[in-house]
Amino acid sequence: MKIYLLVLLTIILSGCGIDKESPPPLSSTNNSGELDTSFNGTGFLSIDGSAGGSGQDDIYAITKDSQNRIISVGSSFNGGDLDMAVWRLNANGSLDTSFASNGVFIHDSAAGGTSTDVAYGVVVDSSDNIYVTGTSFNGADFDMSVWKLNSNGTLDTSFNGSGVFVDDGAAGGGIHDQGSAIHLDASGNIFVTGFSDRDATNRDMAVWKLLPNGTPDNSFDSDGIFVCDGAAGGDCVGGSVSGEDDFGNDILTDSSGNVYVVGRADSVGNLGDMTVWRLTSAGVLDTSFSGDGIFTHDDAAGGTGLDSATAFVINSQGRLVITGFSRNSDGNNDMVIWKVLTTGNLDTTFNAVGFVTFDVSDIVGGGTNDTGEDIIIDSQGRIVVTGSGNEDMCIWRYNQDGSLDQDFNTDGFFSHDSAAGGFDIDSGTSVVEGASNQLYIGGFSENNSGDFDATFWRLK
């Protein structure tokens, strides 16, 4: 669930963790928040070269199916460019060889070009069919793409006739379109959020709604697509704010059919505000939410710059629990958790102000970047966030009131470095809770060759 620009751009990593030179933290009384060494013998697994090349492999989202197998999506270098990749693991950390080719599905040229394809979001239905969204190069620019796989790891050709749906020019610009997150409602309808370029300097948040057969649902905003420009500038409907970008990074529907999207919207003179949009089931802004269908928040960490939401969940009370990051007064990013009411206001019962921030610099010194990339509420009602910081993969666990859970690795967070052996950059991009309450984290880790391996961690 998270904000990623096109993969041809440089990956900008930020995060949180314990300094590499510091001693390991003490164990918690119940071992919660420690690596589970019954997973691959070490508690982590790195995979390289899935598409045949010896370069970049990255995981951007994970989930689990009804058999508690771990499904992850991202990209793998084929020797010339990136292919969309889906990995399926057994619970013990071994690749599921009954899936696709030895546990990995690779796909290239969904949009007809002969270049980069990347997956950013994944969801699984009750029959263990796998829906993936991302982007694919069409020969001139990138198209938003949705793939549907059968549970055995083959394309489901009953979906849009080919197993793939692509769309270009949702915002009218005919340039780049990307799916960043995907969701299924109770009827099997497919919702995707991401962005679409209005022109070369203006990127819009976009929501696509597809019917279960893989075709647009034209009852949703008349053509199956909603776009929003200038949400933080107050001009989302029918207008354009030149040079101000909007991004949708995660999407969910509630029991009433409302559609929530979280992400970022640029405001004039500002790098961006954390933004929540609420749409009705008809695909229009719900003005009962925050007065105009849009909630924004800036300066959570005390700076005057960039705030962004990357992922969220809806809790049992219908409130949104959101993670992301905020620029602090020192110019670094802090991890943030916001809690937002269904009215479109901050829930001030959460940490007294409606949000909480975490800055690892307070622990290790120096200036480090911290970011939350994905969030879940676990089976005990605790808030779990994964992300990165101090160039390490990081996990935080909070209580519902916004306090760190001191029973999780004794101080509420865990970090890990050098999973792939490179002793450099590690990042957690997605998290899911296993059948026995373990935490599975997907992401990437830099290896000794200086590129990234697709990486899994499992924590007790």
Topology, element by element:
Blueprint: E1 44-47, E2 57-64, E3 70-77, E4 82-89, E5 104-107, E6 117-124, E7 130-137, E8 142-149, E9 164-167, E10 177-184, E11 190-199, E12 202-210, E13 225-228, E14 246-253, E15 259-265, E16 273-279, E17 294-297, E18 302-314, E19 320-328, E20 333-340, E21 355-358, H1 361-364, E22 370-377, E23 383-389, E24 392-398, E25 413-416, E26 421-433, E27 439-447, E28 452-459
Antiparallel strand pairs: 1-28, 2-3, 3-4, 4-5, 6-7, 7-8, 8-9, 10-11, 11-12, 12-13, 14-15, 15-16, 16-17, 18-19, 19-20, 20-21, 22-23, 23-24, 24-25, 26-27, 27-28
| Helical/strand content category | mainly beta
Q: Distance between termini?
A: 22 Å
Uncertain residue ranges:
1-29, 237-241
DSSP E strands, number: 28
What is the overall number of helices? 1
Provide the gyration radius in Å. 20 Å
Please, what is the average pLDDT?
90
Oligomer: single chain
Principal-axis shape: globular
Binned strand content = over 45%
Strand order of the largest sheet: 1-28-27-26
Helix content: under 10%
Note the run of SSEs as H and E.
EEEEEEEEEEEEEEEEEEEEEHEEEEEEE
Explain what you see.
- The longest helix is centred in the last third of the chain and has 4 residues, at 361-364.
- 1% of the residues lie in helices and 45% in strands.
- It has one helix at residues 361-364; strands spanning 44-47, 57-64, 70-77, 82-89, 104-107, 117-124, 130-137, 142-149, 164-167, 177-184, 190-199, 202-210, 225-228, 246-253, 259-265, 273-279, 294-297, 302-314, 320-328, 333-340, 355-358, 370-377, 383-389, 392-398, 413-416, 421-433, 439-447, 452-459.
- With 460 residues, the chain is mainly β.
